């Protein structure tokens, strides 16, 4: 599985991105990532409409020739997001802002 | 012109179906993604939109009253449930935990600014308890206003340091609260950029007021104290000045904030670029402050506060903000001040004389 995460918005509004191929991860971490992604994709999302400055997390998952995209406000689905972000967040690197 | 696609008066709402798009292999077409996302956003927003009076939030954390009432909770790296574990209340001394004490002190400084300069007793004028939750989530390099409290991440220590370090951030987030109790400006497109700009303006004004720095002495940029070792070569995250906060950075390239209407950024990101296009009204405020001189809290910040909280409506445009600030300046401080404000807006490409 390949996972791309792009974080944008938030108070600082810097864009951060990482691209991870789970085959490059230790087997237990790869398994946890796969499981966490499945949980995230089936999670209900608590929408918090009056939040100001929440960052936006955009995911692109590729597995078995299928591409799945998902976009979450950082305050949504906190439990499921947290599992994925514990693996991916340390890998984020800053990139230039892109309007599109 | 940016549109205002949805109402945004809702509060914390019930759970809704997953917010995701499944596409068949190789759906790389950006337009397809955009349409799919927009559809889902419209659906979720419609479901989530429920009118809730902000005052209904009062009972959730601490009972309202008159005067300063600060409470700080600790999320201890968790992202739910908010607010977390109670660490410090108004009459307690420092608990010697940096994030908790910083959030507490910065809430106090912001309260003091609003009370002394603007005559406002807390965020709602009625002693709204100022609740902060620190150490939110795993390595979160951000702070946000969640509709009833300020939530701070502690950063990853590499890109970002704890967001409690910045007084301007604390005051910015609390100012979102002030707006929600007054004009309730939308958070999308041009109006959203005004919302963001007001909070940046109040953030830097609280910083200058607390430090006792004049317009001439002040640092007119934000965020330097939040940058970790990996971004140590970035001077600041954004600046009110005409120059970019960073330029040709090896990772970030150049600060994308415009300072003139000709450079307004049309984007689907960041709710129509609310943190991007805020650069235009921010720069207008900077020019007003430079023209009026002295201390920012003497006139410039008071003009902005009055216009944004008492005059503007919740769908205001840059032009309406120009008209409102110029009018308030004239009424409060005379023709010369009004002219200074009009000239500042003109300099960023907004015409304050034409009634929209
Ligand atoms: Zn903000």
Q: What are the key terms here?
A:
heterodimer; A: 100 residues; alpha+beta; 2 helices; 6 strands; 26% helix; globular; B: 356 residues; alpha/beta; Elastase, domain 1; Neutral Protease, domain 2; 2 domains; five-stranded mixed sheet; two-stranded antiparallel sheet; 10 helices; 9 strands; disordered N terminus; binds zinc ion; metalloprotease (chain B); metal-binding (chain B); protease (chain B)
Quickly count the domains of chain A. Answer: 1
Structural class of chain B: alpha/beta
Relative helix content of chain A: 25-40%
The largest pleated sheet of chain B is described as: 5 strands, mixed
Straight-line distance between termini of chain A: 25 Å
State the CATH architecture of the largest domain in chain B: Roll
Spatial strand order of the main sheet of chain B: 4-3-5-7-6
Give the distinct bound molecules. Answer: zinc ion
In terms of per-residue confidence, which ranges of chain A show pLDDT below 50 for 5 or more consecutive residues? Answer: none
The counted number of beta strands of chain A is 6
User: H/E element string of chain B?
Assistant: EEHHEEHEEEHHEEHHHHH
Our count of helices of chain A gives: 2
Strand content of chain A: 35-45%
Q: Report the C-alpha radius of gyration of chain B, rounded.
A: 20 Å
Structural class of chain A: alpha+beta
Strand content of chain B: 5-15%
Largest sheet of chain A: 5 strands, antiparallel
CATH fold name of the largest domain in chain B, please? Elastase, domain 1
Oligomer: heterodimer
EC number (chain B): 3.4.24.-
GO molecular function (chain B): metal ion binding; metalloendopeptidase activity
Active site (chain B): 173, 275 (proton donor)
Pfam families (chain B): Peptidase_M4, Peptidase_M4_C
């Amino acid at each position: 599985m390949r996972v791309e995460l792009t974080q944008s918005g938030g108070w600082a509004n810097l864009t951060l991105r990482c691209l991870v191929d789970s085959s490059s991860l230790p087997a237990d971490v790869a398994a946890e990532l796969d499981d966490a992604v499945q949980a995230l994709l089936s999670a209900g999302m608590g929408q918090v409409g009056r939040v100001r400055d929440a960052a936006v997390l955009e995911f692109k998952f590729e597995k078995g020739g299928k591409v799945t995209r998902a976009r979450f406000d950082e305050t949504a689905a906190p439990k499921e997001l947290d599992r994925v972000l514990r693996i991916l967040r340390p890998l984020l690197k800053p990139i230039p802002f892109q309007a599109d | 012109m940016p549109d205002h696609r949805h109402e945004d008066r809702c509060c914390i709402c019930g759970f809704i179906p997953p917010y995701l798009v499944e596409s068949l292999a190789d759906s790389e077409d950006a337009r397809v993604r955009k349409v799919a996302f927009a559809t889902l956003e419209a659906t979720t927003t419609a479901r989530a939109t429920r009118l809730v009076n902000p005052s209904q939030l009062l009972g959730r954390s601490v009972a309202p009253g008159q005067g300063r009432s600060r409470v700080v909770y600790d999320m201890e790296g968790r992202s739910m449930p908010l607010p977390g574990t109670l660490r410090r209340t108004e009459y307690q001394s420092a608990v010697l935990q940096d994030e908790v004490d910083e959030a507490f002190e910065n809430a106090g400084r912001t309260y003091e600014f609003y009370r002394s300069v603007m005559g406002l007793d807390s965020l709602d004028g009625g002693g709204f308890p100022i609740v902060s939750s620190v150490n939110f989530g795993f390595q979160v390099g951000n702070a946000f206003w969640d509709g009833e409290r300020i939530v701070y991440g502690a950063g990853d220590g590499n890109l970002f340091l704890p967001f409690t370090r910045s007084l301007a951030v604390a005051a910015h987030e609390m100012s979102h609260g002030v707006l929600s109790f007054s004009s309730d400006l939308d958070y999308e497109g041009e109006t959203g950029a005004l919302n963001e700009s007001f909070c940046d303006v109040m953030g830097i004004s609280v910083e200058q007021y607390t430090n006792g720095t004049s317009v001439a002495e002040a640092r007119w940029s934000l965020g330097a104290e939040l940058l970790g070792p990996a971004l140590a070569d970035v001077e600041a995250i954004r600046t009110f000045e005409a120059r970019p906060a960073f330029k040709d950075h090896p990772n970030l390239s150049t600060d994308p904030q415009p300072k003139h209407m000709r450079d307004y950024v049309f984007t689907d990101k960041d709710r129509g670029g609310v943190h991007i296009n805020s650069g235009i009204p921010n720069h207008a405020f900077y020019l007003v402050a430079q023209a009026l001189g002295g201390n920012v809290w003497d006139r410039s910040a008071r003009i902005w506060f009055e216009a944004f909280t008492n005059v503007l409506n919740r769908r205001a445009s840059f032009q309406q903000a120009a008209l409102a600030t110029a009018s308030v300046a004239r009424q409060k401080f005379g023709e010369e001040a009004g002219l200074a404000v009009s000239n500042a807006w003109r300099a960023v490409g907004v015409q304050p004389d034409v009634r929209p």
